[in-house]
Design brief:
mainly alpha, 3-stranded antiparallel sheet, 15 helices, 52% helix, globular
Length: 294
């Protein structure tokens, strides 16, 4: 389809309201865009930006990261959360260095074949780094389309074929990457999951959900998992203790991190199984030897 009134409204709003983010700059590399997309999964922009900037200064190319150890990647990941993403990003860098001569591949199928790169990330990199006409469906985009076009408060829990087909049908012939990032930004800043700012939305006069009276879908209101006392919290505390140490950490030091032994041991076992920690003779460390910063 050619540029529709809906696309024109969203891209016009984006031109006036887009955040100035380094991975959107004209000089941003495909590697920098890929790193940003991995970091931004389930993590707010404000937390990602300083880590991304430090990461790109240290490892400006995939080959640079591939030459470091997995432990270096985990340590640099800091407190972004879900540190398995750091391991996957290191594995992706290693594959790019060995298979693609250090250059992020432009082909969607090649991107999809990289370790830990799923449908969304492959489409985002293909679109934002290489200008491909791809439907980029993150949580924000899915929510905007569910409301504005589908008349629903929230999209289904899992991405459906109907959502993909609708997103592809809405892609403009021209400037599809601009449309993709503009819809994503609209979902992040205006059409938010909680308390959307409908009065500031460029689609407020054409939104199917608003036209229907903004009905509440009680099944879509998901309970937020508590953080205090969860295994994920314990894992984070254990990782922080090891990550901040100059070398290996003894079992006794980790025992002080969390007093409940069964949960602590369960968390440690999970970290080892996930490849985030290694243990030898009761001493715990990040995987691989540390390499000097550049």
């Amino acid at each position: 389809m050619s540029t529709s009134p809906l696309a024109a409204a969203v891209t016009g709003w984006y031109a006036a309201n887009a955040r100035d983010l380094p991975w959107r700059a004209p000089e941003a590399t495909a590697w920098g865009i890929l790193v940003s997309e991995v970091m931004l999964q389930q993590t707010p922009v404000a937390r990602v930006q300083p880590v991304w900037e430090a990461w790109m200064e240290r490892w400006p190319t995939a080959t640079d990261l591939a030459e470091a150890s997995p432990g270096d990647a985990i340590r640099a990941w800091g407190r972004l959360g879900y540190p398995r993403r750091a391991l996957r990003l290191h594995a992706t860098a290693t594959t790019i260095a060995s298979t693609y001569a250090g250059e992020v591949p432009a082909d969607y199928e090649d991107l999809l074949s990289l370790p830990g790169i799923g449908e969304y990330t492959a489409a985002a990199v293909a679109s934002f780094a290489f200008g491909e006409r791809r439907a980029v469906l993150d949580t924000n985009v899915r929510r905007v389309l569910a409301r504005a076009v589908g008349g629903q408060q929230a999209p289904p829990p899992s991405l459906t074929k109907a959502e993909r087909d609708r997103a592809v049908a809405l892609l403009p012939d021209d400037e599809a990457p601009l449309w993709a990032v503009a819809v994503m930004e609209l979902g992040a800043l205006v059409c938010t999951a909680v308390a959307p700012a409908c009065d500031r939305c460029p689609l407020r006069n054409d939104c199917a959900w608003l036209a229907a009276g903004a009905p509440v879908d009680h099944q879509a209101v998901r309970r937020t998992q508590p953080w205090i006392g969860t295994d994920r919290m314990v894992r984070g505390k254990l990782m922080a203790r090891v990550r901040e140490a100059p070398g290996s950490v003894p079992q006794a030091a980790l025992d002080l991190v969390w007093p409940e032994p069964v949960q602590r041991e369960r968390a440690l076992a999970g970290l080892i199984e996930d490849g985030l920690l290694v243990v030898e003779d009761g001493w715990f460390a990040l995987p691989g030897p540390a390499t000097p910063s550049r």
